[in-house]
Every structure is written in C-alpha cells, then in structure tokens.
Amino acid sequence: MSDWKAGAIRSFFRVRVHSDIPGRLRLKISNFRLIPQAGVSASLPYIPKAFGLLPGVKTAELNAKVGSLLILYDPAVTGTKAILDWIDTMIETGVKYAPAIARSGMKDPARIERFFIEKLQTRLPSGERR
Predict the structure, then answer these.
(1) Rounded distance between C-alpha atoms, residue 87 and residue 51, angstroms
(2) Are 51 and 86 in contact (CB under 8 A)?
(3) Which of 129, 123, 23 is nearest to 77 (CA)?
(4) Cα separation of 45 and 29, whole Å?
C-alpha cells in the first residue's frame, strides 16, 4: 500500500476524546462522514469484537449517525491510553494487511473479519491474549 493511501486511511479513522469518565470513553471519529457507507456497515459487527480483545473492555458501540464510539471498560484493568493505543494498533493492522486481502480476492466480510481478529490477537500486549 502506498504511503499516500496508508496516510488517507489513518486520517479517516483519527479519533479525538469527546468525554472521558473512568469506565466510559466517548470518542469522535474525524472525517466520519467521508467514510463510504459500505465500509461503515461492514465494520459494525467487527468493532465490538476487535475492542473486546483488549482486557477490561466490556463493550464498544459505534453510533453511525454521528460518528462517535462509546467504549465501556473496567478502569481497574485498562484505561484511556491503552484503549487509544489499541485503536492505533487496529488501524495499523488494517493498513498492513489490507493489500494482502485485496490481492487474495477475499470478499466474504465474515472471513475478512476473522482474518483481522486473528491478526489483532497476535498484537495484544504480552500476557493479555484471550
């Protein structure tokens, strides 16, 4: 993937903290309205699974109408920095493996989701694999 394309993907999924209360984090996704609807729809089932890999995260829900993400978590286990770092890991994993997915001709959303979840499991901080 070209640096330009990778940079564009990263900018689409840039997040900012909208509210941060221990155990409850709401993020706004910049450029959300520019993400194709098909991409938003495809990611809806993936988001809770990807965030659910991170120990301490209870739920993650995308509000597709306004481009916000609500993450509920156990503050005794994880925190805002770890969640934001995990988002960076998710984006980098997508950027890294998107070309391989495209070359493989893989089209089934469930299969693509499984592929990315498997890759994310290997990126969990050591000792935290589920």
Answers:
(1) 8
(2) yes
(3) 23
(4) 17
What does the alpha-carbon distance between residue 122 and residue 45 come to, in Å, rounded to a whole number?
20
Confirm whether 37 is domain-assigned: yes
CATH number at residue 48: 3.30.70.100
Residue 88 lies in a domain: yes
Total domains present in the chain: 1
The pair phi, psi for residue 64, each rounded to 5°, is -70, -15
Please give the chain's pLDDT, 130 residues, in tens: 556 555 555 556 678 999 999 999 999 987 666 555 655 555 657 888 999 999 999 999 988 788 889 999 999 999 999 999 999 898 888 888 888 888 888 788 888 889 999 999 999 976 554 4
**How would you class 14 by CB atoms within 10 Å of its CB: exposed for 0-12, middle for 13-18, buried for 19 or more?**
middle
Contact 12, 27 (CB under 8 A): no
